[in-house]
Amino acid sequence: MGVGGYGPLQYSVLIGDALKLQPKQIVVGLYLGNDLGDVARGIQERHSEREIENPFRHVIKYHTATGSALHQLLRHSKFGRPAGFEISHSTNPTFVADQRVRFLSSDMDLTDPRINTALQTTLQVLAGAKQQCSAAGATLTVMLIPTRESVYCHSQQTVRDAFPDGLLQLTQRESELRARLQSSLTELGIASRDVLPSLVSAIDSGAVVYSAHDEGHPLTAGYRVYADTVAGESSMAATNALTN
Fold first, then answer.
1. Residue 85 to residues 39, 94, 129, Cα–Cα distance (Å)
2. How many domains in the chain?
3. What is the pLDDT along the chain (244 residues), one digit of tens a residue?
4. What is the Cα gyration radius of the chain?
5. How far apart are CA 82 and CA 65, in angstroms?
6. Does residue 114 sit within a domain?
7. Residue 38: what are its φ and ψ, rounded to 5°?
8. Which domain holds residue 104?
9. 133 partner at 20 to 30 Å CA-CA among 9, 23, 40, 167?
10. CB 100 within 8 A of CB 216
11. Could you tell me the pTM of the whole model?
């Protein structure tokens, strides 16, 4: 389950609707970069059910705020480019804005009580989702989606020594969050798949996974990596079901 602008709070509402379709497996995409931050902000500011009942909210927001061709052209030009850092890569170079690094890093800071509370809330949502799935005869898998910045930091074709301290701090916090999530999900008996190794392999093999501009979402090749990860998990689940 992956919907732009939605996160764990919304998924807690959507799981029940998804199970009405009688799936064998539900995959929840958890973006490490800002999902916990969204939960922290959402606990105070957002109403999950009301947002889901308003399907046009994100469409309107996109087309009025950032969807214009003029805005995109300016943002991707050297005149509209914010302060940031160019990441060199033989086949897939990219640009990272300083503001984005600060924002994502703060949303993964487990020393921040708000983020720690958001993590516990997220785990509670996922534990409830597992119970719902099990009762319906379905399996639940959490796909851990890394930040673009972390993918480049793990690439063999980038020079980490040239990365600014803020970017290195981001990837360190992300690694700590990933390890915490994997450990907690294992304790809850929830299967998880980490997309990071496959994305690193993809960019190092020559695939153009990310935009050269400051855009965190992957291109088509990146979403194919996501799909292949899910397909691999589904195949493993089917094999285990046959052998058990």
1. 28, 9, 39
2. 1
3. 556 667 888 887 889 999 999 999 999 999 999 999 999 988 654 444 454 455 444 454 455 555 555 555 555 555 566 788 888 888 899 999 999 999 999 999 999 999 999 999 999 999 999 999 999 999 999 999 999 999 999 999 987 778 899 999 999 999 999 999 999 999 999 999 999 999 999 999 999 999 988 778 899 999 999 999 888 755 544 444 434 4
4. 19
5. 18
6. yes
7. -65, -40
8. 8-50+84-243
9. 40
10. yes
11. 0.82
Token digits of residue 37: 């931050």
Helix/strand/coil for 82: coil
Cβ atoms within 10 Å, residue 93 = 15
How far is 141 from 192, CA to CA, in rounded Å?
Answer: 5
Residues composing the chain: 244
At 168, phi and psi to the nearest 5? -65, -40
In a domain? residue 66: no
Best CA proximity match to 222, nearest among 18, 37, 31, 11:
31
**185 half-sphere exposure, CB direction, 13 A CA radius:** 22
- Alpha-carbon distance of 59 to 138, in angstroms, equals 31
Residue partners of 175: CB distance under 8 A and separation at least 6: 150
